[in-house]
């Protein structure tokens, strides 16, 4: 009976598990952003070129801070780039002129 083949610790199988772990963590972040008190469906998290990019628009600065805190909790130790914008909700100071 032959023994099972084992890959070295740094082998390709190890890298695949690392990638799966990142994908799992990003999916968990998406779930948290959508399901918890945030309910932020306007925020996207994607894996691009070995880093996680989190983009979107939120209604307030407080919501932005909550999103950023959640991102850092879920993706600690990973390369993360964020571009979360607060939506302009101020009333216009003048009437818009239409041509």
Residue fraction in strands: 15-25%
Strand order of the largest sheet: 1-2-3
Total of DSSP H or I helical runs spanning 4+ residues: 2
What share of residues is helical? 25-40%
Task: Give an account of the 3D structure.
With 99 residues, the protein is an alpha+beta fold. 38% of the residues lie in helices and 21% in strands. The protein is built from two helices and three strands, in the order H-E-E-H-E. The protein has helices spanning 12-35, 61-74; strands at residues 43-48, 51-58, 80-86. The chain has a three-stranded mixed β-sheet, covered by helices on one side. A hairpin with a 2-residue loop joins strand 1 (43-48) and strand 2 (51-58). The longest helix has 24 residues, at 12-35. The radius of gyration is 20 Å and the shape is elongated. Residues 1-15 have low confidence and may be disordered.
Tags for this model:
disordered N terminus, 3-stranded mixed beta sheet, elongated, 99 residues, alpha+beta
């Amino acid at each position: 009976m032959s023994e099972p083949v084992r890959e070295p610790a740094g082998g390709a199988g190890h890298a695949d598990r690392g990638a799966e772990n990142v994908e799992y963590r990003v999916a968990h972040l998406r779930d948290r952003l959508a399901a918890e008190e945030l309910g932020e469906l306007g925020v996207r998290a994607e894996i691009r070129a070995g880093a996680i990019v989190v983009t979107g628009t939120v209604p307030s600065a407080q919501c932005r801070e909550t999103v950023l805190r959640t991102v850092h909790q879920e993706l600690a130790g990973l390369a993360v780039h964020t571009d979360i914008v607060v939506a302009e909700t101020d009333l216009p100071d003048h009437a818009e002129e239409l041509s």
